[in-house]
Amino acid sequence: MDRVERIALVSSAVLMAVFLGALVYAATQLRISVPTCVTDVTPFKHGQVIDKGNRHYEVHMVAKMWAFDPPEVRLPPGADVDLFVSALDVTHGLYIEHTNVNLMAVPGSVNSARVRFDTEGEYSVICHEYCGAGHHFMMGKFVIASAAAVPPPAAAETGVALGQQLFEQNGCNACHTIDGAPGLGPTMKGVFGRTVELADGATKVADEAYLEESIRTPNAELLKGFQPVMPEVPLTADQVHALVAYLKTLK
Ligand code: CUA
Fold first, then answer.
1. Per-residue b/e over 27-62, b at no fewer than 16 CB within 10 Å?
2. Closest residue to atom 1 of ligand 1, CA basis
3. CB 3.0-4.6 Å disulfide test: which of 142, 148, 177, 239 passes with 181?
4. Calpha distance 126→140 (Å, rounded)
């Protein structure tokens, strides 16, 4: 065998051994796991956090236009998280800052990664796959704090508080500001009772019936100057009432 050929063969063998060693080192010592596409988990439609005990959590994250469900996950420092990600509508991305979690959220499939949060703080969750007009607003977060330091927000049951929660959870706030600032959709500040101009030039007063209708069938009566990009969010009648109750408080 030619000398140069031998050098090439030996050095490629050494290189492969170094790569394999690096993989084993990363997996066992640095606890870095390669993202996996899980085939034995049925794609889910709702996000949830499951406490498995011993600071081990399973997080089911659903990406949708243009929010993550759950929008905020609160865990104690040292939490070991098995993260499962799916999507409702189109393909989204999921990157958690300051971690090596970088997954695709694909409708009809589940991707998974394992991550450990040792340091307290806020970790933004960012959609890194262009998913439509509200893509750049699509964010969530992990809040890592000991339970004593930050009590979890109480779950709202009814009325205005529930409406506000739904408004944030479903990503309405990505496109509709509540302070009058311009956004992708019309601002919700003072929306109740406002006279709105529709795309065809007709005007209408935004009463309860109009607001409910606009939430249920978003693009049926477009406002002048806006695009038909609002996704239809599956909500129960009670949830729509709560949202409208909340909108009425935005004076
Ligand atoms: Cu979701 Cu970009």
1. eeeeeeeebeeeeeeebbeebeeeeeeeeebebbbb
2. 92
3. 177
4. 7
Quote the pLDDT of residue 161.
Answer: 86
pTM (two decimals): 0.70
Ligand 1, closest atom to CA 90? 1
Partners of residue 112 on adjacent β-strands: 36, 84
Can you count the helices (H) and strands (E) in the chain? Answer: 5, 13
Encoded tokens for 84: 């499962």
Q: Kindly state the tokens that stand for 118.
A: 């040792």
The lowest-confidence range among 30-39, 65-74, 101-110 is 30-39
Q: Which residues of 224-249 are buried (b: 16+ CB within 10 A; e: fewer)?
A: eeeeebbbebebeeebbbbbbbbbee
Single-letter residue type at 234 = P
Using CB atoms within 10 Å of the CB of residue 2, give its burial: 0 to 12 exposed, 13 to 18 middle, 19+ buried: exposed
